[in-house]
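Quick start: what a row looks like.
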Amino acid sequence: MTKKNAAAAQEVENLERQRFAAQVSKDYAFLEKVFADDLVYTHANGKQNGKLDYLQSIRDGKSVYDKIDVENISVRAYNDGTAAAVHGQIVIYQPNKPDGTPNVAHIKYVTMQIKDPKKGWQVVLWQSQKQPEAK
């Protein structure tokens, strides 16, 4: 891996962790910056959003995150550090279900980030898959 790609991979991993924290804290300014205008965000249930729809779902309380734990992240940078493919596993904690049981989702995901010369790193694609609960 080139020095540029290695540096880009570390930068993207840090931004991924910051983005998850921003989704929990509802830091819309940060999320507006890191999601590309042409974002395709595919949830684990198959529902797809663009940037505006997804951010509105957080504002409306349809996408609620009490906590997101990062289990692992792997980043591969390409094109002299201007593109990155990311895959990882997270655990999403949401408000309890109506019967009071915990609402926890174990997720595997892939995302593609592109470094815009003016805007910096931006998520252009997110795809996630819910994993069975460990027994």
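That is the whole record. The first helix runs from residue 3 to 25. The CA atoms of residues 67 and 93 lie 5 Å apart.
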